[in-house]
Amino acid sequence: DLYRKVFVFRKDPSDAYVVLRARLEQPLHNFTVCLRSYTDLTRPYSLFSYATKKQSNEILLFKPKPDEYRFYVGGKFVTFRVPEGRGDWEHVCASWESATGIAEFWLNGKPWPRKGLQRGYRVGATAAILLGQEQDGFGGGFDPYNSFSGELSDVYLWDTGLSPDKMRAAFLSLRLPPALLAWKSLSYEVKGDVVVKSRLRE
Predict the structure, then answer these.
(1) What is the pLDDT of residue 87?
(2) What pTM did the predictor assign?
(3) How many angstroms from the chain centroid is the CA of residue 178?
């Protein structure tokens, strides 16, 4: 149980990452991924990387610069422009549904204008899911200058699109529906220089 804990990625640039294990029985037609990050990086970095053998950027949350997030599904991406961080925690949720190809992006409990992405696509189920690195191959192929350095917390993955009130609940750390990956029951393995510590403040 990682309640009130964080992963601290200590080095910059880094070869460290965290492997997450989710029991996925079938391809995803819908999903929502949420996480909280805290960093002073201004270079590009990867937050959440979900790769299959066919597609290394099956799901990817990537921040190429301080005022932009990229959300990938099946190798294609949409860009969400955001205010530059003020040196505080940032909570992001990204959701996608195959039937409409609608991509939603929420930052700190607030929705951004929806965009279209990969309508009719299915996200493969046999996946390598990593925090802190971008995969250019299945479970590897990292560029240290796209690595994350800082603190990560509250990571979740659902096989549904969350409703607006649940998106806000994720931001406020309230009760959430059962998830494929849940911070309070996370199955993970640390690779390299990552330390689990208590959160410094709520």
Answers:
(1) 84
(2) 0.97
(3) 17
